[in-house]
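Lab notebook, bench 4. Still working through the backlog of constructs that have no structural model yet. Next entry is a single chain of 217 residues. Request: give me the structure tokens for it.
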Amino acid sequence: MLQLKSFTFNPFMENTYLLYDESKEAVIFDPGCFEKYEQRELSDFIEKEDLKVKYLINTHCHIDHVLGNAYVKRKYEVPLYIHEREHPVLKSVSAYASNYGFAGYEESQPDYYINENDQLKFGNSSLEIRFVPGHSPGHLVFFHEETGICIAGDTLFQGSIGRTDLPGGDHDTLLNAIRTQMFSLPENTKVYPGHGPMTNIGFEKEHNPFVGKRARF
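Model written out:
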């Protein structure tokens, strides 16, 4: 059975997710761990559960989601997977990291590109990949059908959506992608966003003020 562990890291209060199953293979999504104590919190859990990290995935490459990339790659000797359109976004982080107080930011390079036509397989689990751009140009979300878990990054939040005023963002693109790619998931799908609490597709279809039934178009 697929299990999920969440961590909240850095001043942006970013949600980092660890997925693993009975095989003990694991995937880390969006490591925001920058400080040493944050890195220890992540690694202590992995050691406690005797997990083997197989992949490092960025749903997208804004600074708050990639601060721990270099640490995870080095610590667990795993490849970094991103969408190709996120490569310039990742590369740009080193140019502005110090402006946000991350003077010691260590740049990371992707090892492989992934897209919506792929499946992410580890242990006894397989995740469907969906392309949901708008918050960033190459944003991906990951869905596990058996448990209804969706790693959503900064696409859909409880009662909100990802901001679209950053470079590469587009409001209409995000709204359309959520309606076509996220809202086509089962209503009981558990949405684990990049910030804030979990929500579900049924609730957001009904109540989300940006894309739900009551949204103003």
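Notes after review: The two ends are 40 Å apart (CA to CA). The chain has a mean pLDDT of 97. Flag for follow-up if needed.
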